[in-house]
Amino acid sequence: MVIQFAKFPRLGGVKTRLKPLLEDEGCYQLHLELMQWVNANLHASGIFTFLSLDQLGHHAVIDELAKHNPILLQQGQDLGQKMQHAMRWGLTRAKQVIIVGSDCPQLSTQHLQQVRAGLQDHDHVLIPAEDGGYVLIASSECFAPVYAGIAWGSGQVLEQSKRKLQLGNKKLCLLPELWDVDRPADYRRLLSLYPSWPARLPA
To answer: How far apart are CA 124 and CA 112, in angstroms?
Structure first.
């Protein structure tokens, strides 16, 4: 099972670190584009996918995604609590749960296959992000400490998470790092790699 995390689309409330470059409307549109792009990549893998949002409501893009992705409401005060709840919930329905964000356009079917292979002999799999966080966490158990006491949004997320797993004697598989779209430099990189963005969604 894959659970895709995303913020409900709100003008002025998404991709805020890109406001100096894109302003509110551009950030809003990019959020929608990335959410749909990542979702299409996930579906290409053939793994059943849920879309987890921080609030519920009607929106044309969300309503369209909901036709193929059951919606799961995030629960908790911070990202760690929300992911822990999603992981625990998912493991009541599947043997393995993969939680991904909606900011990494390069996450592919091949990456998800590597994640599933890693879970065969590891407790957790992480795909690091270049900014010091991670773009994906996967596990066959809900290990509460890895979701608590983490400086979410900082460049210490990966190292702190690795330390939690080490202290818990958990076997961790670290896959090669990817990058996500958070800052102006990331957006310029996105356009350099996908010059027609977002004209084509992945097949």
So the answer is: 13
- Cβ atoms of residues 51 and 6 within 8 Å: yes
Q: What angle do CA 89, 138, 45 make, to 5 degrees?
A: 95
Tell me how many degrees the CA angle 182-178-122 measures, rounded to the nearest 5: 125
Please answer whether residues 53 and 71 qualify as being in contact, where contact means their C-beta atoms are separated by less than 8 angstroms.
yes
Domain 2-191 belongs to what topology? Spore Coat Polysaccharide Biosynthesis Protein SpsA; Chain A (3.90.550)
Phi, psi of 126 (to 5 degrees): -125, 140
What are the DSSP calls for 3-17, one per residue?
EEEEPPP-TTSSSGG
The closest of 85, 180, 175 to 126, measured between CA atoms, is 175
Ranges of each domain in the chain: 2-191
Alpha-carbon 54 to chain mean position: 13
Residue-wise pLDDT tens digits, 84-106: 999 999 999 999 999 999 999 99
Peptide bond into 70 cis (omega under 30): no
- pTM of the entire predicted model: 0.94
